[in-house]
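Give me a protein, keeping tokens residue-aligned:
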Amino acid sequence: MHRIVSRVLACAVLVLLVAGCSPRINILGGFYREPLEEQTIEGRGTDKILLVRLQGTLKMSPSSALLYKRPSPVQRLDEQLAKAKDDSRIKAVVVSINSPGGTVGASDVCYDLIRRYKQETGNPVVAVLMEVAASGGYYTAAAADRIIAHPATITGSIGTIFLRPDMSGLLDWVRVNVEVTKSGDLKDMGSPFRASTEQERALFQQMILDENARFLDIVRTSRKLDENAMHAFEDGRVLTAQQAMDAGLVDSLGYLHDGYDAARHLSGAGEDAQVVVYQRREYPDDTGYNTMARSPMPGGAAAAFDVESALGVPQAGLYHLWPGAFGNWE
């Protein structure tokens, strides 16, 4: 009986992975159509500092929960910065980053959104690295005018990897075969249904090197580092906050309020400038450390269950991601 149950569960997992979906009923999807509302965290002055929270695995696609789809981190960052552009009282932005990174595309778009916001408004941006701000999380921070790392931050992991779920063993176990008819020998390279060939691994390695060259160039340029300084982290290692500062990747160690102070100083905003956030639900006595700031849906843990995150299985692709933290992040 135990073996039968195990095979049934394995088949269910296989169906979810192949179909690329999770069971859900979109009865609450309208919640995210509500407009963002401003809420003040602290301060009473005329000038404003906007706090934007960038959390979770960076990806372009929405998270699929049981009852709804949650907008992607890229969409949430974009809509908040777009709203900030229309408010002349906002003098600076603080981006708190708690992310192990994500896809190459999403990481680059987050970087570009911050860069464009600075270019179009002239407002400074301060990045505050929280628990984990690794790989694509750091890539995003590189667009900021100043980077402050929480003393206990794990950062670095500056590099690129190709990830894909390997289901060949599972297919053998449940006795399922996948027949592929293809137009060329390499059309199914990266397929999760078989092992890669040496030629395919070499091609993926070159893709990784090409994408990583851009990552390293952005870090080198934004942090004004020479080639010798790059040797301290270009192998992709993760770093403590102090190691990152010694390597020139961050400007100082501090906390979220140090980010507010830096934003006020860089922008010339008054000492009593308000710190505000944009969200779709009001939280009484809100603070900058509110981990529910992504406007959670009603329904609790069941409504928020994300199959892909729970299984810890990414979509196949190129990532600026620290794999050691993957699977526990939405």
User: Anything to note?
Assistant: Residues 19-31, 293-305 have pLDDT under 50 and may be disordered. The chain has eleven helices and 14 strands. The radius of gyration is 22 Å.
